[in-house]
Amino acid sequence: MTAWIGRRLPRAETRRLVAGRGRYVDDQAAARGGGGESHAAFLRSPYPHAEFHFTDLEAARAMPGVDAVLTAEDLVGVCRGWTCPDLVYPGLVSPEQHPLAPGRAAYQGEPVALVLASTRAEAEDAVERIAVEWEGLPACTELASALEPGAASVHPGLASNLGWSTQLGTDLDAVFAAAALVVEAEIGFARVTGVTLEPRGLVARWDPSVGALELRISHQMPHQLQLHLAELLGVDQARVRVICEDVGGGFGLKMHVYQDEMAACAASKLLGRPVRFIADRMESLMADIHAREHIVRGRMAVDAAGRILGFDVDDLQGLGAYSIYPRSSTREALSALHAVGAPYKFGHYRARLRCALQNKVPTGQLRAVGHPIGCAITEALVEAAARARGEAPLAFRRRNLLAGADQPWTSPSGARLFGLSHHACLERLEAMLAGVDAEVAAGRAAGRCLGLGVAALVEFTAPGARSYGASGAPVAAMDSVAATLEMSGEVTVRASVSELGQGIRQGLAQVMADAMGVDAGRVHVTSGDTQAVPHGGGAWASRGAAIGGEAAWRAGVALKAVVLRAAAALLQTVPERLRVEAGRVLDEAGQDRMGLDEIARIVTLRGYELPDGVQPQLSVTAAYRREQDANLPNNGIQACLVEVDRDTGMVRVLRHWVVFDCGRALNPLLVEEQVRGGVVMGLGEALWEACEYDAAGQFVSGTLADYRVPMSAEMPDIAVALVETPYEGSVVGAKGAGEAGACAAPAAALNAVNDALAEDGVVMTALPITPLAVLRALGRV
Amino acid sequence: MKAPRFDYARPSTVEVALELLAEHGDAAAVLAGGQSLMPLLNLRMAAPGLLVDINRMAGLDGIGAEGDGLVIGAMARHTDVMAHPLVAARAPLLVQALGHVAHAAIRNRGTLGGSLALADPASELPACMVCLGARIVTRSLAGKRVHEAGDFFHGLYATARRADELVVRVEVPGMPGWRQVFLEVARRHGDYAIVGLALAVRGAEMRAAFCGVEPAPRLLRSAEALDGLEPMASDDAPPEYRRHLARVLLRRGLAHG
Amino acid sequence: MDEEATLRIASTVNGRAVRSLVPVRQSLVDWLRDGLGLTGTHVGCAHGACGACHVVLDGRVVRGCLVLAVQADGAVVGTIEHAGASPIGAALQDAFFERAALQCGFCTPGMILQAAELLEADPAPSREAIREALSGNLCRCTGYHAIIDAVETAASRLRA
To answer: In a mutagenesis test of the A interface, which of B6, B101, B234, B245 is the best target, namely the one with the most A β-carbons within 10 Å?
Structure first.
């Protein structure tokens, strides 16, 4: 009985956005005309590692418009420091962080002083007048050497820069020694960052009369942030309200506890005045979380029949100066290792992980957390094996992809795999690629350097409570939906899942429409306010449809039951003889008996018409947590066609194909473009994006001219096909959709470039693949 | 970030602008199209005492014929130069090169004179001017000076323009019979060039100038002259890389249609 | 320190005459947002790399972060809030909505204004031409594909 789930509908609320009527956090502040706000600007450490002391703050304080100049000692007692203990990673080294660094900065961009002034420009003028004496300390920034003896200490007193390490799996030396074929690959992944087009920003309003904080912020999870603020500022949870209206992108970067954000909130509390902080692009690139700095070595053993025997991987991860709170910086590496080999059937697995502290901004969870790394090393090994065996890469994959009959299956890496449609996706991809092999052959014959690369993926989405609850992090894996029948017959839905542009509000509207029996256009979904709805996880790990969608279904079913009971009481029948369709109550004969609007009006305005003892609750709240299955794996396969210019080293992406199964797609129109957006982000990682530091540890990617994100001219059309294998453990059947595009695109692009360069005997081993690296590999430079 | 404080003047005649430049010297910065200066201000990497906005001065944005060549006012916007039929007919190199300059909204605002006065080593237009043998005309209160393009660009962001001078126009000679081609390698469309080539060829004769190779473009009249290039170094583009790309582009330019 | 330098300006913004006293260092986009409350124009980088701040100045699309507010004195300024007043702008807004050619929407105002300028000059652009025209507008959410589709759709409707 699905009329609305699965329909390709535009998002109702984007009518506002195309008209320039968005309400992003800085718009709120601007529209309010300042309202006595102080604008924040930070002095940030120009050094990767330095001790400092202020020699003069008075000159800054005397600057026009300045309300306050604050340093760490001003915030003592206002906001406490934090560490990132993680019960799942015992021994994780996580030095204490403070809103403003007290006396020593451990990464370039770390905030050390805060100026509040009438305008941001005046605040910046005053920042320039703060007199500081810096004493540079030896810094460790390069990952490859971070754990070597003699590396500079990231923090004083550390025995080494090892932040955490572990070994997973079992010994497999014998398996590899006996294997018919062992292939090896090494890939270095450059640090990248999220670059939400709307930078992080907030307006914090501390009301000293009642001791309450109202925070408007561009953030992915208002409820989680409410907990952090209550804890760190020492305020009762109910006295903290967090509001996120339109959020200009998240990608995982707007969900951590940032020093500058805590400092701005603490300043509002200290001074009793509203504080606006809008990060500029330079501080975003420098001080938002970075991600994905890894050096991964992998080996794969294959038997004589071409079946994968096992994977052996070694991952060295760069953490940055601190483990990001509350999720920790090590998560990404565990996620990467979990994803190794995930699309395939294999018998043996071993992984070694070392996480290195560095004098760089902390790393954290970014879209598809770790999966692109696990996917890239796996798929590089798979292509290498196919090449070594002289067979088509798709043929090698067909033999090894986990079949339907093999599922459910728990892999040697501990991944639980079920509901995956690898072979259906593979067939679909082959159909999409019809003629491409011939095109490549013809192009090569004409002297073009073309390459086709493929990558299969499994992404573990929508984690349950074991993921963070067990680690002690205050991250909710459940979500809440409150639904109200209005007197117009419309249904208003308030959800704890967050809208960041992914379209989840539209998805929930379609779920509610089916659950209630109303038109989707009559359902209005809001989210992003801790005061509007009970606690829930927000937006992380592609959970909106799978968790929030289920909560919406339950709320809709419960509200419909209320409505039917009320209707039955009014119509002197029993609810079982009535149903709701398109906002009308019908009887068994299909006769239209009354509208939902009428029921709501009677309940609300003319209660005397109801029989005694009938008290319809036209607002219901449902919460959902999944009780089984730690994650919901989705799957897909991608292909990328590139052309390499052997003279210039430039790589051009000509076409890209995706087949993807996210279970039930609530709205394929939205899912497809989400997938494409992920692909583009992945192609950025493959070919352009890098947070680079020079030999002295100085960050040199501080503008969008230096940090190169993919733009429209470089991107190809991206063909997307969906295969739907609904999750059987839920009603709606959705799995995560929003990140999978990013999982396999770097792998597909890397394989494509290496396919193009195979006849030159060249293998690229670092992302992004720069033209200079290509030319060097070819011996041309 | 927000721009630092500065004073602002917006003269309506060249004479008044020149008086301001004479008075303030190095403390003044000229705001032409502003597409390079404004980012520097917003990044607080430039902090002029006075901004002299020359966008209100009449008569500096003309594009016209002179003999078989062109005269282009310093304030001609890139978009207008690109779209002008005389430019397409007499200096097609400029039309090709401008297609590589940033993006539409930047070209709507950016000016020829501003680009030449800035002399960014990665910028396409200085190389074009050297290739075309253009003359760049500057003015100060002391009078007018005419610079051969080959003498105008001195190095990284350094030109023959004195602080009290304005670039007022560019004279591009006609090059009948010369095939013109601009080629460039950049990481993304509209990015600063890693290396770009402005090339004119007539029979066995060639005039080539590169951007992104040396701190300033210079005229090369033979393929062998590339041996004498002394390319710049940077972390992402070492000299041997720039030299290699220069050779590749010249080879392609000479083979080009 | 001296008072901040300011200048009184008079402009026509979205068809309305506007007079303002602006700091001379203020960018056009900051004035539109903070001075006039026209928050549909966004700031994505403030160094001319992302296109989120596009506005129309005397008939041409410019980066609002790379023009000073004082340079709008005597000028006609149009922003996304006024884009629907033209058939091209309205067609693009409809097409972006219907095709879901936006996710977070932060880039959309700049995209639409840039696409409108393209369609004014070229009523039937190829996909490649659309990609090139929008190459200075960063969208971090979509795959650009839907945006190109939307511009194509708007163009074909406007030709019909």
So the answer is: B245
